Amino acid sequence: MLDAVRSTAQWTTSRIKAIRALIDDTAERMKRDAPGIYSRELTELIFVQPYCRIANVVDADIAQRQTASVYLKQLVDIGLLREMKAGREKLFINPHLIQALSVA
Fold first, then answer.
1. 2, 24, 34, 88: most buried by Cβ count inside 10 Å?
2. What are the residue boundaries of the structural domains of the chain, listed by start?
3. How far apart are CA 42 and CA 37, in angstroms?
4. Per-residue confidence (pLDDT) for residue 104, from 0 to 100
């Protein structure tokens, strides 16, 4: 039983470290490739869940709706997010986070 707990704790710790490193790498890439939109808040917001909506950016008081759309599309252009249509809404998927979460 203790081996199972230890194994789970090690796996979880490695996922947390990988995600933290990914956040830092993403922040550096945003600073380099899209310095006009970089903010630590935006960087962290796209890691709250595997996808982000324009409304999430607005609700976080990072930008107004039109500007939030521009920000997320710039992140798509530099390869950090992928845009996906879901009904009338656009989702901006964080494929790097999904990959970090699904590694065994």
1. 34
2. 2-102
3. 8
4. 60
Task: Give the pLDDT confidence score for residue 34 in this predicted structure.
Answer: 96
The residue among 97, 20, 99 whose CA lies nearest residue 52 is 97
Choose between 30 and 102: higher pLDDT: 30
Render pLDDT for 45-79 as a digit per residue (tens, 0 to 9): 999 999 999 999 999 999 999 999 999 999 999 99
For residues 70 and 54, give the distance between their C-alpha atoms in angstroms, rounded to a whole number. Answer: 9
- What CATH number is given for 2-102 in this structure? 1.10.10.10
What 95-99 contacts at long range (C-beta under 8 Å, 24+ apart), as own/partner pairs, is 96/22, 96/26, 97/19, 97/22, 97/46, 97/47, 97/50, 98/50
Residue 6 amino acid letter = R
37 burial class (0-12, 13-18, 19+ CB within 10 angstroms)?
buried
